[in-house]
């Protein structure tokens, strides 16, 4: 059986940090409101002219270095993003060129905040089918470009950043037979469009548009649907949820993370949370949180790590990895 192994990880956050108090100076909000409703204390925003592909390349370079491989080793590049530099071509092909990769193939996956789980599932299936032996899987976003600065209920929630992992078909380090991606689970229900969307695009308004959200509805679906995805992933791997060592969720909001942990009876100490420092970075949040927890030594080889997310569409999913 071919299984995709994680060879390395990397992350990048833009230098510019914006605190809740910075928002409070510009609009009618407060650090207290934002912190108690969401857990967010600060977020990073890309500088003017700094694009999603710039963040993606930096995260990818860090991941390649951590994996001990070079760009020439990569067969496929898949970028999860909802904020591409241009409508086309894909950020994936831009990253491919910037890294000097001249073979294989690259593309983007669009599943908003679930994007990294979708990209991971895509790369895993290419590797398992034998169509690629290695993959660079990236989540990269400049969500700041989609925000309506007049809408205080959404503009305080998001941040910019990128994270990446290198996968390969069980070669090199970490090749023990029981390690790697055990399964991925994807779900979507397009009837829930109006809960979370951007009111623009090339074939509707011809503009980029702004993010629109029905916060309370999203909250309710997030807790329920992500719990279903986690249980499906654990069941497919034949392990009880309580045996999972670490949960690496999409970082939308601390109350969603707490709600899921409570619903599944998971100890909060097993849930990786970076939302306070990063805000919601959409498709970048899972690999950023993963890089944080592997980097600080919490996630160790051999442990069971569950990645999960929910986003616009709605889309949601989970992936279970024996690290
Ligand atoms: N500062 C101060 N007051 C605010 C702000 C703000 N930034 N934003 C909204 N308010 C006010 C509202 O105007 C409203 O005032 P009113 O009662 O006088 O009308 C009051 O706060 C309550 O507003 P609600 O929108 O009802 O606030 P709620 O308690 O639902 O919290 C929140 C909003 C935090 C967005 C919540 O609904 C939530 O966590 N939703 C989850 C959605 C989410 O995290 N989405 C991220 C993207 S989706 C994803 O990644 C999964």
Automatic annotation (TrEMBL):
Q: What is its EC number?
A: 2.3.1.180
What are the annotated GO cellular component locations?
cytoplasm
Pathway field of the UniProt record reads:
Lipid metabolism; fatty acid biosynthesis
- Name the reaction it catalyses: malonyl-[ACP] + acetyl-CoA + H(+) = 3-oxobutanoyl-[ACP] + CO2 + CoA
The residues covered by the Beta-ketoacyl-[acyl-carrier-protein] synthase III N-terminal domain are: 107-190
State its location(s).
Cytoplasm
Q: Which InterPro entries match?
A: ACP_syn_III_C, ACP_syn_III_N, FabH, Thiolase-like
Asked whether the keyword Lipid metabolism is assigned, the reply is: yes
Where is each Beta-ketoacyl-[acyl-carrier-protein] synthase III C-terminal domain found? 235-323
UniProt keyword terms in alphabetical order: Acyltransferase, Cytoplasm, Fatty acid biosynthesis, Fatty acid metabolism, Lipid biosynthesis, Lipid metabolism, Multifunctional enzyme, Transferase
Tell me if Cytoplasm is a UniProt keyword of this record.
Answer: yes
UniProt cross-references to SUPFAM superfamilies, sorted A to Z? Thiolase-like
Which sites are catalytic? 113, 250, 280
Give one GO molecular function term: 3-oxoacyl-[acyl-carrier-protein] synthase activity
Gene Ontology biological-process entries: fatty acid biosynthetic process
For the region ACP-binding, give the residue spans: 251-255
Where does the UniProt entry say this protein principally localizes? cytoplasm
Q: Which CDD domains match?
A: KAS_III (cd00830)
- Spell out the subunit comment: Homodimer.
Described function: Catalyzes the condensation reaction of fatty acid synthesis by the addition to an acyl acceptor of two carbons from malonyl-ACP. Catalyzes the first condensation reaction which initiates fatty acid synthesis and may therefore play a role in governing the total rate of fatty acid production. Possesses both acetoacetyl-ACP synthase and acetyl transacylase activities. Its substrate specificity determines the biosynthesis of branched-chain and/or straight-chain of fatty acids.
Domains: what does the record tell us? Answer: The last Arg residue of the ACP-binding site is essential for the weak association between ACP/AcpP and FabH.
Return the protein name.
Beta-ketoacyl-[acyl-carrier-protein] synthase III
Q: Which organism is it from?
A: Rhizomicrobium palustre
Q: What is the lineage of its organism?
A: Bacteria, Pseudomonadati, Pseudomonadota, Alphaproteobacteria, Micropepsales
The protein's gene is named fabH
């Amino acid at each position: 059986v071919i299984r995709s192994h994680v060879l390395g990880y990397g992350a990048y956050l833009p230098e510019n940090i914006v605190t809740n108090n910075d928002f409070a100076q510009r609009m009618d909000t407060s650090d207290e409101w934002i912190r108690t409703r969401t857990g967010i204390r600060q977020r990073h925003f890309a500088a003017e002219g700094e694009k999603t592909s710039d963040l993606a390349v930096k995260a990818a370079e860090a991941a390649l270095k951590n994996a001990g491989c070079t760009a020439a080793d990569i067969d496929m590049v898949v970028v999860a993003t909802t904020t591409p530099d241009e409508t086309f071509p894909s950020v994936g092909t831009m990253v491919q060129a910037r890294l000097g990769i001249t073979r294989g193939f690259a593309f983007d996956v669009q599943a908003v905040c679930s994007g990294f789980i979708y990209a991971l599932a895509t790369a895993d299936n290419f590797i398992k089918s034998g169509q690629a032996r290695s993959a660079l899987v990236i989540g990269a976003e400049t969500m700041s470009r989609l925000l309506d600065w007049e809408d205080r209920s959404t503009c305080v929630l998001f941040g910019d950043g990128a994270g990446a992992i290198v996968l390969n078909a069980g070669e090199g380090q970490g090749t023990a037979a029981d390690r790697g991606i055990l399964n991925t689970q994807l779900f979507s229900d397009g009837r829930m469009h109006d809960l979370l969307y951007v009111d623009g695009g090339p074939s509707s308004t011809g503009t980029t548009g702004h993010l629109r959200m029905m916060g309370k509805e999203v909250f309710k679906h997030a807790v329920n649907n992500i719990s279903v995805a986690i249980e499906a992933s654990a069941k497919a791997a034949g392990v009880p949820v309580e045996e999972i060592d670490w949960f690496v969720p999409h970082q939308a909001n601390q109350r969603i993370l707490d709600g899921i942990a409570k619903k599944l009876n998971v100890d909060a100490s097993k849930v990786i949370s970076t939302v306070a420092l990063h805000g919601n970075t959409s498709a970048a949040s899972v690999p950023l949180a993963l890089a944080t927890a592997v980097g600080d030594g919490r996630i160790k080889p051999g442990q069971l790590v569950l990645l999960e997310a929910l986003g616009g569409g709605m889309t949601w999913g989970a992936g279970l990895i024996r690290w």
